[in-house]
């Protein structure tokens, strides 16, 4: 129609062209879309231009088309584009409709040249405008009634990806973007057709009609498909912006920011504020590598590079079942990374890695929750829950179980069955696959099955009624499970939103937990380690004896050593300088010897661990403890340059063990280099004897239980307890 109208201009058409820009230029018109038209001319008079525009536009308006038009010369077009981001973005998609082809070609060439030349000015403006738009319109993937065009992950963001690609700074994955765009455009076309208007907001009442129109099984399937597409767009766009910010080039082609690589391990480093795998990393042969690099990224609070994710998605081998300890520990470190784990998890989900680990995740991936309480899809809600749970790890004695239960508490959704019951059935084989033992599997089953118990009971039952407390006691076997369930309830409520969790509700749940706790026996403090007859016999010799057992992914080290002050600190320090990461330890002093058992994981740079090496290093440390401390401080200083993430404050609690006349100090804190060395050193400087220790590292969380006595015998006085615990806590906060 426009072509025939243009032809009717006769001689007036000389030196004039009609171009399509924006969505019209891209050929992305939906039934209700506007026509974005640019009329270019070679210095036509005002009267001629008036006749041209009237001839072209009035018939279009009469036919019901909504036309957004501009009239400019090439020079005017160039000047306007230089000043107006929206104009130049529209010109990047310019297309000839009718008239002078050279005018449109010149406008297109000008726009691309200007865009590339001034990318360092335009891109920050584009990013800021996107940020404001996202704040107004929310996330397309998670809204009940999203705006298909303006929301994060929507059509405007797709156009931004293409614009950034035209800047020449990098080459994004246009193929993946195109697939998502096709889905969103298809849904928008259907929306315009069904509603008969040009609105791009997908209201709840239209979703069933559109699902039927597009042959989806139901509205949930429609919204899940839309969410997956939006998440794909957002993932690519987030990666692009990160690369532009840290690898963008100035006009001369130099990097705007060039950041030196920082090595985290032989295969993993930080480069340009991303965590990356080295070129020669064993991607196709090491099934634990994906776990290691994901944990590293989450714990330093940086994203994974897109190339690293693509390599792992295409080439990572399947992990054995049950998972080796190194895989499980790194997975717990990943999901314990707080807010920073979201980007890592999303990247792995986009590349298919999450569903390769957990096929059950496919059912809940992008599954909408069509009610006003929930802000997110099922899978994103569980991820948000584990983020909130990471701030509550000091509340519990098994932070790994809290994090794991938080991540999978709604895994039973997506069917007509009760999701708590089905989830309890699913979590057992999942936990077994990951390598949790039978007792832990049972605890996780209870947590998933009863994750609504405390909230429902606290808000619907009379807490003064003994029957209410008895009903909870019947379902929760011990205090450890109670504290886990309490923390899970808080995390679930906070992740759901203010409509589901308030101070009032939190107070009711806490009151219920206090009442149930008072009816239970405290069994959360681990008893002192028991020694075998063989260990007692070796201890009786009074000699330094070491045995090393190399296992598939770690070492089991048994040490019997003549007792002396500061042994726990000294031996853990030796292990640290040998690049051996302590995952657990059990120590006990009997007669005049300390009996120790350590489970350690060797750094790739660690020397071969042998009895001879350990004995030599321990004797050297006994001879010169200052040299050992200096070597450890050197390693700590190296780690101090790495980025960090926010973590909960450490918790230091003390108890009296009436059975052994000892003072128990329990420390729950985020793991860090030489942690046990520092704790032991502080206690030694307080002139206190560590008689036994139970040390456990769960992912990135450490729980250390130490049995202390005065050197003259007996438990510590109240003043001494306060002194020791205060100094330990101060050391942990440094």
Helix-strand blueprint:
Elements: H1 2-7, E1 16-20, H2 22-26, E2 35-41, H3 46-62, E3 67-72, H4 74-83, H5 85-91, E4 95-99, H6 101-117, H7 119-137, H8 155-166, H9 174-195, H10 204-213, H11 219-247, E5 262-263, E6 268-271, E7 274-277, H12 289-300, H13 306-315, H14 325-335, H15 341-350, H16 353-357, H17 361-364, H18 378-390, H19 399-408, H20 419-434, H21 438-449, H22 453-460, H23 466-473, H24 479-496, H25 503-518, H26 533-541, E8 545-550, E9 555-562, H27 567-577, E10 580-590, E11 593-602, H28 611-623, H29 625-640, E12 651-657, E13 662-670, H30 675-685, E14 688-698, E15 701-710, H31 718-733
Parallel strand pairs: 2-3
Antiparallel strand pairs: 1-2, 1-4, 5-6, 6-7, 8-9, 9-11, 10-11, 10-14, 12-13, 13-15, 14-15
Helix pairs in contact: 4-5, 4-6, 8-9, 8-11, 9-10, 9-11, 10-11, 12-14, 12-15, 18-19, 18-24, 19-21, 19-24, 20-21, 22-25, 24-25, 27-28, 27-29, 27-30, 28-29, 30-31
Domain ACT: 556-634, 664-734
GO molecular function, one term: hydrolase activity
Domain HD: 378-482
Put the structure in a nutshell:
This protein has 734 residues and is of the alpha+beta class. InterPro entries: ACT-like_dom_sf, ACT_dom, HD/PDEase_dom, HD_domain, NT_sf, PII_UdlTrfase/GS_AdlTrfase, Polymerase_NTP_transf_dom, UTase/UR.
């Amino acid at each position: 129609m426009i072509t025939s109208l243009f032809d009717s201009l006769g001689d007036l058409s000389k030196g004039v062209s009609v171009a399509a820009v924006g969505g019209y230029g891209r050929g992305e018109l939906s039934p209700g879309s506007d026509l974005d038209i640019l009329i270019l001319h070679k210095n036509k008079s005002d009267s001629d231009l008036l006749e041209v525009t009237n001839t072209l536009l009035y018939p279009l308006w009469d036919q019901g088309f909504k036309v957004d038009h501009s009239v400019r010369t090439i020079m005017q077009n160039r000047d306007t584009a230089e000043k107006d981001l929206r104009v130049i973005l529209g010109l990047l998609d310019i297309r000839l409709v009718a008239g002078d082809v050279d005018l449109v070609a010149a406008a297109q060439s000008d726009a691309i040249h200007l865009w590339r030349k001034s990318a360092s000015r335009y891109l920050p403006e584009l990013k800021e405008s996107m940020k404001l738009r996202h704040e107004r319109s929310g996330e397309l993937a998670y809204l009940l009634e999203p705006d298909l065009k303006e929301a994060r992950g929507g059509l405007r963001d797709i156009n931004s990806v293409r614009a950034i690609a035209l800047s020449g700074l990098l080459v994004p994955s246009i193929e993946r973007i195109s697939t998502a765009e096709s889905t969103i455009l298809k849904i928008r076309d259907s929306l315009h057709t069904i509603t008969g208007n040009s609105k791009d907001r997908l209201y709840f009442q239209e979703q069933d009609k559109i699902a039927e129109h597009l042959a989806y099984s139901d509205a949930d399937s429609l919204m899940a498909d839309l969410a997956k597409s939006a998440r794909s767009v957002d993932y690519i766009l987030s990666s692009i912006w990160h690369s532009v910010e840290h690898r963008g080039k100035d006009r001369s082609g130099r990097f705007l920011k060039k950041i030196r690589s920082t090595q985290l391990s032989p295969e993993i480093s930080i480069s340009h504020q991303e965590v990356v795998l080295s070129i020669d990393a064993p991607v196709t042969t090491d099934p634990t590598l994906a776990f290691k690099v994901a944990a590293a990224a989450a714990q330093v609070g940086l994203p994974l590079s897109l190339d690293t994710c693509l390599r792992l998605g295409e080439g990572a081998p399947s992990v054995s079942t049950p998972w080796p300890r190194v895989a499980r520990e790194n997975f717990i470190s990943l999901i314990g990374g707080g807010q920073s784990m979201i980007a890592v998890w999303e990247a792995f989900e986009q590349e298919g890695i999450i569903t390769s680990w957990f096929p059950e995740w496919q059912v809940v991936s992008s599954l909408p929750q069509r009610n006003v309480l929930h802000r997110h899809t099922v899978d994103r809600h569980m991820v948000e829950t584990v983020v909130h749970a990471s701030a509550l790890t000091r509340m519990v004695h098994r932070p790994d179980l809290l994090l794991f239960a938080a991540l999978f508490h709604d895994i039973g959704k997506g069917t007509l069955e009760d999701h708590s019951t089905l989830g309890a059935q699913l979590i057992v084989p999942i936990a077994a696959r990951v390598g949790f033992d039978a007792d832990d599997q049972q605890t996780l089953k209870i947590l998933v099955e009863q994750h609504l118990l405390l909230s429902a009971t606290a808000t619907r039952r009379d807490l003064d009624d003994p029957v209410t407390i008895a009903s909870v006691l019947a379902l929760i076997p011990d205090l450890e499970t109670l504290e886990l369930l309490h923390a899970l309830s808080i995390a679930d409520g906070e992740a759901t939103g203010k409509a589901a969790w308030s101070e009032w509700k939190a107070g009711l749940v806490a009151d219920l937990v206090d009442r149930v706790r008072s009816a239970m026996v405290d069994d959360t403090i681990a008893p002192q380690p028991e020694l075998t007859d063989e260990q007692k016999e070796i201890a009786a010799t009074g000699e330094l004896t070491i045995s090393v057992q190399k296992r598939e992914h770690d070492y089991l080290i048994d040490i019997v050593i003549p007792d002396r002050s500061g042994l726990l600190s000294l031996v853990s320090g030796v292990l640290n300088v040998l690049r051996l990461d302590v995952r657990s330890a059990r120590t006990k002093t009997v007669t005049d010897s300390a009996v120790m058992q350590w489970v350690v994981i060797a750094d790739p740079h660690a020397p071969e661990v042998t009895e001879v090496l350990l004995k030599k290093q321990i004797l050297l440390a006994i001879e010169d403890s200052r040299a050992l401390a200096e070597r450890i401080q050197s390693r700590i200083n190296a780690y101090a340059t790495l980025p960090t993430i926010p973590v909960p404050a450490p918790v230091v609690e003390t108890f009296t063990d009436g059975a052994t006349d000892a003072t128990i100090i329990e420390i729950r804190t985020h793991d860090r280099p030489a942690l046990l060395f520092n704790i032991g050193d502080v206690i030694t400087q307080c002139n206190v004897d560590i008689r036994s220790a139970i040390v456990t590292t769960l992912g990135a969380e450490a729980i250390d239980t130490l049995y202390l006595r005065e050197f003259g015998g007996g438990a510590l006085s109240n003043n001494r307890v306060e002194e020791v615990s205060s100094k330990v806590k101060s050391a942990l906060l440094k």
